[in-house]
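Record type: monomer structure entry
Structure origin: computed from sequence
Chain ID: A
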Amino acid sequence: MKNSIKKYLLINVIMAITIMSYAQTKQNNPFGLVYEDAIKENVPGKVNIHPVTYKLNGIAIAANVYTPANFNSSKSYPAVVVAHPNGGVKEQTAGLYAQRLAEVGYITIVADAAYQGASGGMPRHTDKPVSRVEDIHGMADFIMQHEGVDTGRLGVLGICGGGGYTLKAAQSDKRFKAVATLSMFNSGEVRRNGFQNSQLNTIQERLKKASDARTQEAAGGKIMYAGVASITDEEIAKIPTDLYREGYVYYYRTHAHPNSTFLYTMSSLLDLMTWDAATNMDLINQPLLMIAGSKSDTKYMTDEAFPKAIHAKNKELFLIDGATHIKTYYVPEYVDQAINKLASFFEKNL
């Protein structure tokens, strides 16, 4: 009992300190960026951020393009597409990695998925794999037309759920000359089997709920949602898995953004539960880098997918010692390790 109380108090102290440390960034950032050391203004000669919008299959997509220091549109630069985590938006960790890659010389783009964030599309929070994969193709479409981009040197980085969708996009999209994932999360596997295969006995029950939700939507009824809309500190402290306990702290406390949510339409499960990021991995023939924290409870998904990429060139699995899934999103020492590895990988292969 005493240990539980100590653990709860410790979590709350850590949360309070971290929230205060990021409060200043969130309040003052004109671009809505919630990560540490985010760009606050565009300064000549430095890395700049450019909010853009474009249409993808009739839906307005909101994105940020980052350009390197001393950007010259008459020169030629490699580019990297960055796909955000499930529930995430471009202003969080995907933006952090896009900015850091721009700092080492890449033009980068990170977009809110269709139906999510500041992008258009209804119903809101639809999370279907075919759409998320199309988002990645769409970012490539846009950035390849951007001034200064060398279209023959395009890479892609997917984080968390964006990592799973990146693997699938790269299987067919050979515009991507180098493919990287960070803390890859196989959305289809987890929605089907439960996290760490904890819901194998309820698959049919959940498919029935998803089917009923779609029927209700088709009839013009209320949109049903899965996921968590809000959570108390007490509820967070009781969560046994690092992914969700630290994830709720990240998304709902320390790096909260009004466009970010853990909700997704219940009907999306019809598509999610029959999809798997790790199928057809043999189609990836590009150089492949998969990064995961050594203490990440999602590492098993990277471990499952990596050996299936039998045709990938220069394939490498890189572990960040001591990192959990969520800590690769923002902890400086872990982000630095990931960026250094990504920079050398993209430099070698782009």
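Annotation 1: The longest helix spans residues 2-28.
Annotation 2: The longest strand covers residues 149-159.
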